[in-house]
Design goal:
Length: 468
């Protein structure tokens, strides 16, 4: 499918980078997004960086070359989420191993064994076109076999339960249906992808009409492909939530009840599921301490929630409205502990201490300072998204408290540095250096530069007094 090869090459390149290089890239792309400098592909690269880090932390599905070729058409429909989470028309990436086991063990065991040998031989000989041709023929047989067993299961409850148990994934029926539909309609979906740009910055105006017509043309060749054609388009959107604009266009208005009556109403369900996935990712990053582009992730969540609220007239008591309200409440609960801990972390590091509490030649723990600095920056980022994420009051209160602590505490720190002796000088200097870093996040770099100069003056005064 057009664009899939490009993304796979990008993923391979990012996977081969040293961890330090990936960390630097993540930090730089996050700063770029938060500044509003959204270059072409920035969000795509950041998304792939997050995925590579997660894969290396949690482990990727253990599938070989034959399976990778087999699942290639499924790439636009894979989602990095819990296998039990309901994503219409999508399959959790971690479910691929179990699906492949089912295909080669229960569905078409003999054909799968022959395919594996023949594909391995072709790849060893460098004949990739032959390997792809073999896999295509096998995909057709798998799609037919799945359709046969699902139809038989619809008439035989015992057979249906046994099939689901053999598949073994939490959403076995949905996963099998998605696999069948995507394999059977791979050519139509590939044609649709070939007519779409790799990245659509804004789904609006003439583009909205054009891509809606393309989507419906694809579905005309196979009615069951509607959902998957919609997901192909969504996979190319720089802001995936914009897929709901198709549902508003189809309904002719933004009234949720009218939108739900159209076949495009499923787009809203898709976006809500994606928002729920991102909230789960945020939870994992905050609890795991991985530090993986949380600020940029917050921005994406914010934009998605705002898009749902501004593009649609969502009554609070509607199914979609309740789902969005519940997600916003989850976000607020997740962020509260991090946000409200920031003033205390800053206060503990910058507390003016008597000389008797300071060990000779000691300094603040650099890791603690870096963590506190990141937390202060995190609170600042949250302020930008506070209204939509239902954290406005707590974020403003916390930020004001940090400002007060810095504004009043730095004076005492400068005074302590001015009168420091040989024993406590290095520690007091490290406190002032930490305050400079925090102030750069809260008051800006110019204020931090002024504080640095003040610290230099205080230190020079102390050295002059010592010499005297």
């Amino acid at each position: 499918m057009a664009g899939v090869e490009t993304i796979e090459r990008l993923r391979q390149y990012l996977r081969e980078l040293p961890p330090q290089a990936r960390a630097l890239l993540i930090a730089e792309f996050e700063r770029s997004l938060l500044r509003g400098d959204e270059g072409a592909g920035t969000d795509l690269v950041l998304q792939e960086l997050r995925r590579v880090v997660r894969d290396q932390r949690e482990g990727s599905p253990r599938i070989g070359n034959c399976a990778r070729l087999f699942f290639k058409p499924l790439e636009p429909f894979l989602v990095d989420d819990r296998a039990e989470h309901n994503h219409p028309g999508r399959v959790a990436r971690r479910s691929l191993e179990m699906l492949w086991t089912w295909v080669r063990r229960d569905l078409l065991p003999e054909e799968a064994s022959v395919l594996n040998d023949e594909v391995s031989e072709a790849l060893l000989a460098g004949d990739e076109p032959k390997a792809e041709h073999l896999v295509r023929a096998f995909q057709d047989r798998v799609a037919g076999a799945i359709e046969t067993i699902l139809e038989a299961g619809a008439a035989d409850a015992k057979l249906h339960r046994r099939t689901l148990a053999q598949i073994g994934t939490p959403r076995a029926s949905e996963d099998a249906t998605t696999l069948k539909c995507v394999l059977a309609g791979r050519d139509e979906l590939a044609t649709l992808a070939a007519h779409l740009p790799l990245r659509i910055a804004n789904l609006a105006g003439d583009q909205l009409d054009e891509y809606m017509a393309l989507n419906e043309k694809t579905c005309a060749r196979g009615g069951e492909l509607f959902l998957y054609a919609l997901l192909v388009l969504m996979s190319r959107l720089a802001a995936p939530w914009q897929v709901i604009r198709l549902s508003v266009k189809a309904a002719g208005c933004d009234i949720a009840a009218r939108v739900a009556e159209t076949q495009y109403g499923v787009a809203v369900t898709i976006v809500l599921a994606e928002l729920d996935r991102m909230v789960g990712e945020l939870r994992n990053e905050l609890h795991g301490g991985g530090g993986v582009a949380v600020g940029a992730l917050l921005k994406t969540i914010h934009d998605c929630a705002r898009g749902l609220r501004t593009e649609l007239d969502l009554p609070v008591d509607s199914t979609w409205g309740r789902a969005l309200s519940a997600q916003r409440a989850q976000i607020a609960d997740l962020l509260r502990a991090e946000i409200e801990s920031a003033p205390g972390r800053v206060r503990r590091l910058l507390r003016a201490r008597p000389s008797t509490e300071i060990r000779a030649n000691s300094v603040l723990d650099p890791d603690e300072v870096a963590e506190a600095e990141a937390l202060v920056a995190f609170v600042g980022n949250c302020r930008s998204f506070a209204g939509e994420l239902a954290i406005n009051e707590m974020t403003q209160r916390t930020f004001n408290e940090i400002q007060y602590n810095l504004d009043t505490g730095t004076r005492a720190l400068l005074d302590g540095l001015r009168h420091a002796g040989e024993v406590d000088r290095s520690f007091r200097q490290s406190q002032v250096d930490a305050a400079v870093r925090f102030c750069a996040k809260v008051f800006g770099v110019e204020y931090a530069a002024l504080l640095t100069k003040a610290a230099e003056v205080a230190s020079a005064a102390e050295r002059k007094a010592t010499r005297a």
